[in-house]
Each structure stands twice: as structure tokens, then as C-alpha cells.
TrEMBL record:
Pfam families: ABC_tran. This is Mannosyltransferase. The lineage of its organism: Bacteria, Bacillati, Actinomycetota, Actinomycetes, Kitasatosporales. Residues 1-20 are annotated as: Disordered. The keyword Nuclease does not apply. Keywords: ATP-binding, Glycosyltransferase, Nucleotide-binding, Transferase, Transport. It comes from Streptomyces graminofaciens. GO terms for molecular function: glycosyltransferase activity.
Amino acid sequence: MASRNDVATSPGAEKTGRDSARVEISGLTKRFLTPAGEVFTALQDVSFTVEPGQFCAVVGPTGCGKSTTLSMVSGLDRPSEGSVKVGGREVDSVTKGVSFMFQSDALLPWKTVLGNVLMGPVFRRVPKQQAQASARDWLRRVGLSGFEDRYPHQLSGGMRKRVAMAAALINEPRILIMDEPFGALDVQTKAIMSTELLGLWEQIRPSVIFITHDLDEAVALADRVVVMTSSPGSVKAVFDIDLPRPRGSVQEIRFQPRFIELQHQIWDSLREEVERAYARTAGGTA
Ligand SMILES: Nc1ncnc2c1ncn2[C@@H]1O[C@H](COP(=O)(O)OP(=O)(O)OP(=O)(O)O)[C@@H](O)[C@H]1O
């Protein structure tokens, strides 16, 4: 059935509205040339779709190509074969409307908290007063009112993450790419930040691709979990997470029977890939 978001588009044209946030990865293969001159296949025929406004977590053993996949969604690298489409348009340069969050904070140390959050609007040439008001509003939303004039080194790890989150979301991205954003945080701060992320995501609903090694985090946050195989990475399984939204506290949801059931199912799928990757890096014969 056609929805009001459906738009007539010519082949290859970018869609507008909600559909502009659909990410379609099909038959994605990526090969690198190693320093020894050999061809190394990092990704082999990876296909999955992130629907508009969907929160998609990607889990897989170390070195399976998760970050490589993201670099092709963002347009920072090109596939060897296959395609990535964002909003129906093949990605062939840096994708517009995408915000990032990485494990490292990526804050500019010489800029204040306010200055860091202002970077996006300034880059987009938003008028100064409007940009300042928006940055202060986002700092309020992430609980950092009163910290506008601090520098990143004067903040805790969790506070720096809040600044990074405000800096990513102030651009109201259609797609939010997150590569282990809370990986360096202690367990409690991570849970608090995850709950805060969910609350903010529910306000603006970008499509999210979220890479993590933490299966609990993936199940608690996502609508869909993609499990990748060990290298060369391909899609092993896709799990739809039918836990109701809003999810509330990430800490609490972990005790729900359905959460535990999904966590076990996904771990069953992931475990042998993790073991295989470990055996390979440990010099075993996987
Ligand atoms: N530019 C490159 N040249 C050669 N090999 C590369 C390059 N970039 C990545 N690789 C290799 O591709 C594979 C996938 O790397 P990638 O960083 O995408 O894995 P990952 O799943 O994100 O790993 P992790 O979970 O440890 O962060 C690795 O074996 C890596 O060494």
C-alpha cells in the first residue's frame, strides 16, 4: 500500500521525506591490498537493509568488517563489488545528512563544550543566533546546561559522550552511524548513556547503524540485530527485536524474559564466529 511518504523517483534519484533515511546494502564485497601485495577480502557479499527510523545493531567478531561496512555507508570508501544505497541513491561520495559517533570522543580539545556542539550548525551556515540557541537547547537535552564554557578535558568520560551526542544530534541527521560509541565507558555509565541515547533517538528518529561487541547493548537498543560471520565478513543472521518501545531503562529491560530469550538466540548464532575468529588470531586452525 502506498504511504504518503512514497515519492515518484527516477532510477538513481534520491528519495525525499522518510524514505531518504533507508539504507540498502546489497552484495557488498570489499577487498584490500595488503602491504605484502596480496588481495585480502574483508567483506564478502554483505546484504541487509535498515528501514527509515530503524535502530539496527551490527555484532560480529573482531576483524569481521563492521567498521569497513560503515565506511562504505558514509561514503568514505567504495565497495569492490555490490552497492550501498541511501534514500534510493547509490553512495558514491560522502553521504549527506549523516552524523557519526565513535569510541573516541572526536571533540576538539581547544573548543568549549558549546563550541564543539556549534560545529555542525556553523558548518551548515546556520545564522549565529539560531545556531547558539539550538546548541544550548541540545546541551540542555543531554543534561549539560551550565557546562557550556568548559573544555573537554574538564569533563568526565560520560559528560564527553553527552557532548558528542549533542554534537551528532543537533544536525538532526537522517542517518546516525555509531561505532562502539560507549565502548570505553564503565558498565554503569554505559547503561545510563544508552538509556539517554534511546530517549533522544525517539525524539528525532534517525535510522541508526550501531556497531557493538556488547550483545546486551545490541538487544536493549535495537529493532534489528545483524550478526556477521568471522572474516571475511558476511551476514550470518538477522534478528528482529520485538521488545516494546519506548524501552525505558536499559538496565531494567535486561531482566525481561523476552530479552533473555533473544540474547540467548543471538549468542547461539554469534558464539561460533567469535570462537573461529579467536582461533585464527591465536594461530589455531579454524
Ligand atoms: N585499509 C585497509 N587495508 C588493508 N586491510 C584493511 C584495511 N581496513 C581494514 N582492513 C582489514 O579488514 C578487516 C576488517 O576490519 P574492520 O576494522 O572493518 O573490522 P571490525 O569488524 O570493525 O573489527 P573490530 O571489531 O576489531 O573493530 C580487518 O582484517 C582489517 O585488518
